[in-house]
Amino acid sequence: SAYANSRLWLTQPPLERDQTLEGIPHLELTLAIDAPTGILSVRLIDLGMAKRFGETAATVALNGLQLGFDYKTTDILEFKPTAKPTPSKLISLGHINLQNPKNAYEVQRITPGQPFHISLDLQPTHYHLPAGRQLALVIHGADMAQTIRPIKTTHYQIDLANSSITLPYR
């Protein structure tokens, strides 16, 4: 990938048995950056060749579901499996503005080069992982599709010994 040198890619060993993630994956990270501001993005990924559902739902029945109020209806949609197996699937993601980790009006001062701690909840999920699959955690800066990309390059150092992820296995 063109971005291989600008991300941290961590994997777990393949699962020994089926698992279901249900809830909110949570990260506790200790890191340092070389700037007073930064954006951190995180992705939790299912690794392993498999036929998965496609990204968009297809219409099963146009106006097939009666809503009961004012005689309105809605379409019945369902996700269909992809024609070919895929190597991975995004399970959950999250972003954090490092200088405003709690809210937009409360600034956390960042001293470049000095370690600091953040807590980050990823998007809630309900996801089944068959035995043999692997989980990957990808940590990177601004996400071009989801966040505003800064003009200046920021370098991140993650302290793995003082960082953790909590996965909500059911």
UniProtKB/TrEMBL annotation:
Superkingdom of source: Bacteria
Pfam (any one): PepX_C
Record GO terms (molecular function): aminopeptidase activity; dipeptidyl-peptidase activity
Domain Xaa-Pro dipeptidyl-peptidase C-terminal: 3-166
SUPFAM superfamilies: Galactose-binding domain-like
Enzyme Commission (EC) number: 3.4.14.11
Keywords (A to Z) from UniProt: Aminopeptidase, Hydrolase, Protease
Name used for this protein in its record: X-prolyl-dipeptidyl aminopeptidase
